Amino acid sequence: MKRPRLWQILIILFLVGFTNSCSLSGNSNLPAKRVLFIGNSFTAYNGGLDKLLTGLAPNTFASGITSGGYTLQQHWESADTLAQIQSGDWDIVILQEQSQNSIINYYNFFEYAKKLNAEIEKSGAETIIFMTWERPDSIQYNVTTQALYKAYTALGQQLNVKVAPVGLAFANALKERPDLKLYVEDGHPTLAGSYLASCVFYEIIYGESPVGNSFDAELSSEDIFFLQNIAAKTLGQ
């Protein structure tokens, strides 16, 4: 049996490395951005939206301040959160309210989003509001896609800031593929759900469609293609 020649071995190693880099590298041609996520476990699950965003856009430096069940009021009252905002280290700060509070305690949601946004603007950063999704266990409290969309759209207009319609993307995805698991019973996202959210943020932040991005987060190629397209279609509505 003939041994492979050196040039053959080098070609094989190159192809393996190229394939792996394509699946993991994301889009390295985008400008560097510094992004801070402020929220709770909806942001932190599956390694964190900061890590997934960095996968899609490797030039991004992203970090997160998250604590289970936290509301924007609790973040406002947190010295650590305020210190991070006031540091001036960020280009973009993303605010995620507790997933029921924006409907159940609407005025509280508005009040503390407004206060945090004022601090973000003082620091020289841009605010993006993270619209969460309809939870199966919260429909009875009117925490529905329609109610969330209205609340977040109104807030975005009042503060004159962008809203990332992640919850709308979830609803659009489930219309086309109701079998797809984007969250568990209590609303926490699966990896597919977090990946879809990161695709929405990717386009909101960079103005670049996620369709065709090589970062796969170890999901199937079928799911990646679907989720990227849903994010792009949602933002094109």
Outline:
The chain has 237 residues and is an alpha/beta fold.
Structural commentary:
- The protein is an alpha/beta fold and 237 residues long.
- The protein has one domain: SGNH hydrolase (Rossmann fold).
- Helix content is 51%, strand content 10%.
- It has a five-stranded parallel β-sheet with strand order 2-1-3-4-5, sandwiched between helices.
- Helix 3 packs across helix 10, helix 9 crosses helix 10 and helix 10 packs across helix 11.
- The longest helix has 19 residues.
- The radius of gyration is 19 Å and the shape is globular.
Q: Which helices and strands occur, and which strands form pairs?
A:
Blueprint: H1 6-24, E1 34-39, H2 41-44, H3 49-56, E2 61-66, H4 72-76, H5 79-86, E3 92-95, H6 101-104, H7 106-122, E4 126-130, H8 145-159, E5 162-164, H9 166-176, H10 191-206, H11 221-235
Parallel strand pairs: 1-2, 1-3, 3-4, 4-5
Helix pairs in contact: 3-10, 9-10, 9-11, 10-11
The end-to-end distance, rounded to whole angstroms, is 60 Å
CATH third-level topology: Rossmann fold
Mean pLDDT: 90
Main sheet makeup: 5 strands, parallel
Instruction: Supply Rg.
Output: 19 Å
Keywords:
237 residues; alpha/beta; Rossmann fold; 5-stranded parallel beta sheet
